[in-house]
Amino acid sequence: MIATIILAVGLVLCVEGLVFALAPSRLEDVLDALRKMPAETRRLIGLAALAVGVFLIWLARSLGI
């Protein structure tokens, strides 16, 4: 269980690090767009990302990965 959590955190850090390393100026554009978005829209995007993440975790666990 602990190994899975460490793996998940490591994967998130790798993806986030790639964004900062490969497209730092594009990230600023995305953050500006997020600032202009209504809070409710950002909340819905967050909930959708959460739902997809939970589904992927469930799928990986059921496949025995």
* Uncertain residue segments: none
- Counting H and I runs of at least 4 residues, what is the number of helices? 3
Report strand %. under 5%
Estimate percent helicity. Answer: over 70%
Count the E strands: 0
List SSEs in N-to-C order.
HHH
Polypeptide structure, described:
This protein has 65 residues and is mainly α. The protein has a domain of 42 residues. The protein is 91% helix and 0% strand. It is built from 3 helices and no strands. The longest helix has 25 residues. The protein starts with a helix and ends with a helix.
Q: Outline of this structure?
A:
The protein is mainly α and 65 residues long. It has 3 helices and no strands. It has a domain of 42 residues.
Q: Mind sketching the topology for me?
A:
Layout: H1 2-22, H2 24-36, H3 39-63
Notable traits:
65 residues, mainly alpha
